[in-house]
UniProtKB/TrEMBL annotation:
Residues 362-482 are annotated as: Domain IV, binds dsDNA. Residues 390-459 form the Chromosomal replication initiator DnaA C-terminal domain. Residues 1-90 are annotated as: Domain I, interacts with DnaA modulators. It comes from Brevundimonas bullata. GO terms for biological process: DNA replication initiation; regulation of DNA replication. Belongs to the DnaA family. ATP binds at G183, G185, K186, T187. This is Chromosomal replication initiator protein DnaA. It is found in: Cytoplasm. Domain I is involved in oligomerization and binding regulators, domain II is flexibile and of varying length in different bacteria, domain III forms the AAA+ region, while domain IV binds dsDNA. One of its GO terms (molecular function) is lipid binding.
């Protein structure tokens, strides 16, 4: 199947059943797929917020679905309307309908297509055809390569190891386990390894997936009684890259499956690369046997970036945006320094700030001075250079805003009047601190990381739909930034 209209209809239908009506109608339905001048497929979202949501929560899966159906192995990227400079799709689509496929220049196919709810025949675990090879790389983001990874203090060792692994060199540790705080490049390194390893050995089976995807695919395979195909698809990998392993914590049968997959692959001399937000020995809700397998190779820290590295990453991101035509020229060094100093948090927050700068400055980037950058960016940049927002501060501010006690947020009580503010507080913790999900859970009365994940997603899902929640989050963000 190569007709993009039909592929999109099928892929969107499947995605809707997987992510649910709410997120689908908020983020996917008002978007449109376009072909750019080079024939690349781009999902154009109405806002940068929707773009970031899609990129974080749905793009990998959309690519898996797309590539499973598209004989041409094209990949789908996501941009917001401001980046592609296209007019708005004429109407937002109702929840039951798929967004349209459009060509560049804003000429859209006129007729909305109804979504086919029928499950697709293709799956991520199809036999090894050309299409399937592309599918194996489907979770990967094209921009996350070694070329776009900036080396600095804190990641140089990890980068060197990553390059060794990607070269398929003999005699190295197996598994290699990258660990470090949220948002400092682990996923980037795993993607880069996968791209490079596949480039060097095009016939090898390189499989990248997140632990969340491992978990959900395994659970689905159990329900469909197709675990044999699932096992086979992973065990025939020459290199398996599993991102965010902390997410298997507490899931006994998934851990057992992962353990037997790892054991089988290691016995066969296949390469394993893993990542998590902490060292394997600190994964306390992972079964001891699995934990010891995870720690058996090389544990390689990816540390938080220092100021110089952040400036270099901001520069490199702006260069990439300039190549895409989003900005022209280079930002002044003092503007970049200002941006970095006013953006505490991980590289992810920094990327958000750089994107905001690019969007507001556009063609005027190179002439922009610090004062003008500051006034243009306004509240998008945070308080002072030393300002760090803490979980405690967030809890107090949220409790105060909703006339609750901080203890209510930490309590077991589940009434809506407490549960929703608690979820907002969790969301703000993820946005404004570098704490991991388990860490945040511990600070909210010892809750499980899946509860935090659910809370954060709930707020992300509600914000575009419920104005009051968006207003609360905005007001709280302003209070926290002082
Ligand atoms: N050294 C770097 N050079 C270029 N970009 C970087 C670097 N480090 C991080 N980034 C960028 O910052 C963003 C966050 O990085 P990434 O997603 O790899 O973090 P992570 O450590 O996997 O986080 P998580 O624990 O949430 O999965 C990505 O867009 C990534 O490209």
């Amino acid at each position: 199947m190569t007709d993009p209209d039909r592929i999109w209809t099928e892929a969107a239908g499947r995605l809707k059943t997987e992510i649910g009506d709410g997120p689908f109608s908020s983020y996917i339905a008002p978007s449109a797929v376009r072909l750019d001048a080079s024939g690349n497929l781009i999902l154009v979202t109405p806002t940068a917020y929707a773009r970031d949501w899609v990129r974080k929560n749905a793009l990998r899966r959309m690519n898996e679905l797309w590539l499973g159906l598209d004989g041409l192995s094209r990949r789908l990227d996501v941009r917001c309307r401001a980046e592609v400079g296209s007019p708005a799709p004429a109407t937002a689509f109702p929840a039951g309908e798929a967004p349209r496929l459009a060509s560049v220049g804003g000429v859209t196919a006129p007729v909305p297509m109804s979504v086919q709810a029928a499950a697709m025949a293709a799956s991520s675990f199809a036999p090894a055809t050309d299409g399937a090879r592309a599918v194996r790389a489907a979770g990967l983001q094209e921009r996350l390569t070694f070329d776009s990874f900036v080396e600095g203090q804190g990641n140089a060792f990890a980068l060197a190891i990553a390059k060794q692994v990607a070269s398929w060199a003999d005699g190295h540790f197996n598994p290699v386990f990258f660990c470090g705080p949220y948002g400092y490049g682990k996923t980037h390194l795993l993607n880069a390894i996968a791209w490079e390893a596949q480039r060097l050995r095009p016939d090898a089976k390189v499989v990248y997936l997140t632990a969340e995807r491992f978990l959900s695919t395994f659970v689905r395979a159990m329900q469909d009684r197709s675990t044999a195909a699932f096992k086979e698809s992973l065990r025939s990998a020459d290199m398996l890259l599993l991102d965010d392993v902390q997410f298997v914590g507490g899931k006994t049968s998934t851990q057992e499956e992962l353990l037997s997959t790892l054991t089988a692959l290691i016995e066969d001399g296949k390469r394993i690369v893993l990542s998590a937000d902490r060292a394997p020995t600190a994964l306390t809700d992972v079964e001891p046997r699995l934990r010891s397998h995870l720690s058996a190779g090389l544990t390689c820290p990816v540390e938080a970036a220092d100021r110089n590295l952040k400036i270099a990453v901001a520069q490199s991101r702006l260069n990439a945006l300039a190549r895409l035509g989003v900005v022209s020229g280079e930002a002044r060094t003092d503007v970049l320094e200002h941006l970095v100093d006013r953006t505490p948090g991980s590289m992810r927050e920094l990327e958000g700030a750089v994107n905001t700068l690019a969007a507001v400055a556009g063609a005027r980037l190179s002439t922009l001075g610090v004062d003008e950058a500051q006034s243009l960016l306004g509240v998008a940049l945070r308080g002072g250079p030393e300002r760090r927002i803490t979980v405690d501060e967030i809890q107090k501010t949220v409790a105060d805003h909703f006339n609750l006690k901080q203890a209510d947020l930490l309590s077991e009580r589940r009434t809506r009047a407490i549960a929703r503010p608690r979820q907002i507080a969790m969301y703000l913790c993820k946005q404004h601190t570098t704490r991991s999900y388990p860490d945040i859970g511990r600070r909210f009365g010892g809750r499980d990381h899946t509860t935090v994940l659910h809370g954060v997603r709930k707020i992300e899902e509600l914000m575009p739909k419920e104005e009051q929640i968006a207003r609360d989050v905005e007001a709280l963000t302003r209070k926290l930034r002082g």
